[in-house]
Amino acid sequence: GHRFFAEPKLDRTLLHVAPDLVRSALRLCALLSPRELEVAKLLALGLSVKQIAAALHRSPKTIEAHTTHLMAKLSVHDRVALSRLAIREGLVCA
Questions:
Q1: Which whole number is the average pLDDT over 9-26?
Q2: Is the sign of the CA dihedral 23, 26, 27, 28 positive or negative?
Q3: Which of 18, 20, 43, 53 has a CB 3.0–4.6 Å from the CB of 60, allowing a cystine?
Q4: How far apart are CA 77 and CA 31, in angstroms?
């Protein structure tokens, strides 16, 4: 029941269906480090800091540091706003 696309076909499909969403996500990806993106996605999915730390094999303090850096870079003041931004910008689906 799943559809699979080759990478170039998927890119063209996404750009055709939701060009603004793709551009927003790409801007966010350029601004953040790969680890920060990963933490942002997991936070937006509702995982706790401890759960993210376990999933990424990092300490909770490291995840807290990434979260602090994310919020500073994106000018948000709490995790809820960070999660909403990640969903709005297309990093994760609501």
A1: 50
A2: positive
A3: 53
A4: 17
- Between helices 7-17 and 19-31, what is the axis angle to 10°? 120
pLDDT value at residue 4: 47
CA–centroid distance for 4 within its chain:
22
CA distance 72 to 5: 36
Q: For residue 83, what are the contacts with CB-CB under 8 A and spacing of at least 6? A: 43, 44, 46
Residue 3 vs residues 6, 9, 10, 19: alpha-carbon distances, Å = 10, 12, 10, 20
Alpha-helical (H) ranges within the chain are: 7-17, 19-31, 34-44, 49-56, 60-74, 79-88
Q: Are 32 and 70 in contact (CB under 8 A)?
A: yes
Residue 22 confidence (pLDDT) above 90: no
Instruction: For residue 26, give both structure tokens.
Output: 């790409």
